[in-house]
Amino acid sequence: MALRSRPWLPALATLASPAPAWAADGFAPALAWVGLGIVLGIAALLVISWRHLSDRVAPLSSWWPFAGAALACGPVVWISLKLLPALAAAIALAVAAWGLWLAWRQAARMRALLDERDHARAEAKRAKLNSERDALTGVLNRGALRQRLERLAEETAQDRRPLSLLYFDIDLFKLVNDSLGHGVGDDCLKAVANVVGAELRGGDVLGRLGGEEFAVVLPGARRIHAIAVGERIRQAVQQRCRTVGEEIVELTVSIGAAEYLGPAEAIDALMDRADRAMYLAKDSGRNMVVADPAAPAAPN
Question: I need a labelling partner for 139 at 20 to 30 A (CA). Which of 195, 207, 217, 265 fits?
């Protein structure tokens, strides 16, 4: 009669019955504590991640239910350990599995964001390179060459190394454009840029100033070395640019060379000296190298 009036007593008796051998020997409590530790660790990780990376990685709405479950998991597991260790282990491991899934999803999101960042950086770098390059020849454009020259001039001055600059112009280029067309003229510009680039060292810098004018920055080169490089360029163009495509063009270049006088000289002055030397080469008959006579003073 007493049992009929209290239907909850059989359930309580079931909970109080001896635990299975595999749970009574401490295996289930150990699993419960391990699971609880994983739960609390993942909860802390998610809190830190959300605080530092905000909604981009771990939106609050995606993990706050787990945070609540993690807070409740401690007392629930503690109470269940006293009544039924197997149940405590099951609860802890289930919440731990949920947390591991959330952490995995967060890590995947972080990897995606890192990939997006790397892609954006690569695109920015590509855009910067494209903005520095002459669209036709692929060498540096005038602005980028000027910036590179300024930086190299500063670096070589600090290291007490020489620096020289070459200006060169394709001889009678207007005649090529007028007689053979601008398409052939563009091919000539690309051919000259390729030939000159093949004659330069790794640290030398080639750029197109505009039209048929180019420049080469030669870090570490004195005027005598710049003249030698200029002569090598002149011969290479004359020998390898006789024909471009199917057209006989017999291209030649006139080259001016100037050595940087040091920090006291403005970059514009250096470029002007190289330019004047180039025009002197053109006025003297073309297809030659002319060097500006100015040279830095010998060190004391």
Answer: 265
